[in-house]
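A favour, since you know our structure tokens better than I do. What I am after is a single protein written out in full by you. Could you add the entry underneath, on a fresh line?


***
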Amino acid sequence: MINQTQLLLLLKVTILAFILGSISLPIILELISPFWLLMFFIYWLIYSDSNGIFSAALILGLLLDVLQGAILGQNALALIVSSAFILSVKKSFFVSNLTTQQVYVFIASLIYLVLFLMTHLVVQGLQSNGSSYLYHLQAP
């Protein structure tokens, strides 16, 4: 179970991530801004030693799916698998230098993005609402 202080920290971090994720930014800043929920969840994951990590990832992912109107379970699956990767490198995360920690977070973000896009491609294909996602990835 998650104890009271860890649950309070997770709640604070989640609210902050949802607020940062919902702020409207210019399109160029939205394209380069990080996925805040994953960043803050990785922070909570590293400094907590609770047993309900995957349950928390599932609940946060489903909540994010509902808030964004995405496919139900899409963010949850990606968050759980990214969390599993971070948990597998958690012991070396503490003794690593900053560059190695950044590589771990980058790999977790890459896992999240690949799973998110694969789920989207399987369910909806390349076309969604008449616009191609490959068009949005091209440089202006």
Summary: DSSP finds eight helices and two strands in the chain. Residues 132-140 have pLDDT under 50 and may be disordered. The chain has one domain: 4-137. The two ends are 48 Å apart (CA to CA).
